[in-house]
Amino acid sequence: MTPERTSWPAILMAVGAGIAAAFQVGKAPIALPFIRAEFGLDLSLAAWILSIFALMGAAAGAGMGTLVTRLGSRRLLPVGLVILALGSLAGGLLPGFSGLLAARVVEGIGYMLVVISAPALITLLTTPTQRQMAFGLWGAFMPFGMAVSMAAAPSLPLVGWRGLWLGMAVLLILYALLVHFRMPRPPRPPSPLESHVLRDVADTLRAPGPLLLAATFIPYSATYAALTGFLPTLLIERMGVTPGTAGLMAALVAGVNIIGNVATGPALRLGLPRRKVMAAAFGIMALGCLGIFQPWIPPGAAYGLCLMVSAGAGLLPGCILGAASVYAPRLTLVPVTLGLFMQGSNWGQLLGPVVVGAAVSAWGWSSASLVLTMAASGGILLALTLRRAGKEP
User: Fold this and answer.
1) Quick one: which of 68, 71, 180, 332 is 20 to 30 A from 61 by CA?
2) Are 381 and 199 a contacting pair, CB within 8 Å?
3) Where is the signal peptide (predicted)?
């Protein structure tokens, strides 16, 4: 069950799969102005391009975790990449807005398979002493993937948003082939004969911690998805920059999230309680969001606050995802626990842009500060409640 040493090349390949999946999250914000122009959408309707990607994960994340448990993370990781590719291909070819939304749902299914299978593989391919370090790297998959994807913004006037969708489909197919042929096969946890999908989910929900950690993921992902999703639009409207420049500036905001991701492992190895690290990250988010969207804050200062919020928030994914092997009721249920965590994350991704988009459309950008500050403040309370789970000091 536990390898004698950590397979770091395989860990990096798993993280690379997550990065390729995160490209599909990052491509939407930079393409949003072009999609709005093509289909004539207001901000509240266009927000669904960002949010509907998370629909299936929000509805069935834990159930998809049981699928990974039964069929194996090594088998389903390339399958998830292929499904992502098919969704991106369909989105680039279908003519109407409804077709684009349906394609984003398909992409969301593939994304969930990737982000459950890859960390499940990391759990099986690492030694316990190096597992948190590996999950610190895994926690960087989203900001790194989003940053690289957003950096393609200057090319959009040339290739168009449909060209970006088609190019991503090709990239995903190539990476799926790499994983299929080169990813080592880890020891597979034995699945009890009496195991059942509903029983696996019920056992995970009854265990102290997993449901609370999943709930804690909601305010983080809601804030991060809304901030990075609308940032290019905000920069264009408030600072008057070109879409290409706005995409690069948003890419930097997404990228500095890696600072917090990488700091997670050392912080926990120093003995800092997980709940306090998480509460501190939410506190940074709450303070920053108070000012980002206020009209009286100079644009340069608002952008600096975006960088601060993203960097501080980066502590959260590694803390939460790295806790799967600690809080899962048994090792065979780590994929189910990860699925539950990602279900919480997807609820945040689903609700954050839609709620913020509706608030901005109704009351202006300053209303986003209130929504996101309340979400981050709720995260502080959830993080501190983790002490009741009793798994860690």
Assistant:
1) 180
2) no
3) none
Place of tokens 């340069």: 300
61: closest CA among 348, 328, 346, 350? Answer: 346
pLDDT of residue 171: 96
Over residues 62-110, the pLDDT tens digits come to 677 777 777 888 889 999 999 999 999 999 999 888 999 999 999 989 9
Dihedral over Cα of 161, 164, 169, 170: its sign:
positive
| Residue 150 C-beta-side C-alpha neighbours within 13 Å | 31
Q: Could you give all domains of the chain from N- to C-terminal order, each with its CATH number?
A: 8-187+196-389 (1.20.1250.20)
Q: How far, in Å, CA of 5 to CA of 117, rounded?
A: 20
Report pLDDT digits (tens) over 296-324. Answer: 888 888 899 999 999 999 899 888 888 88
> Rounded to two decimals, what is the model's pTM?
0.78
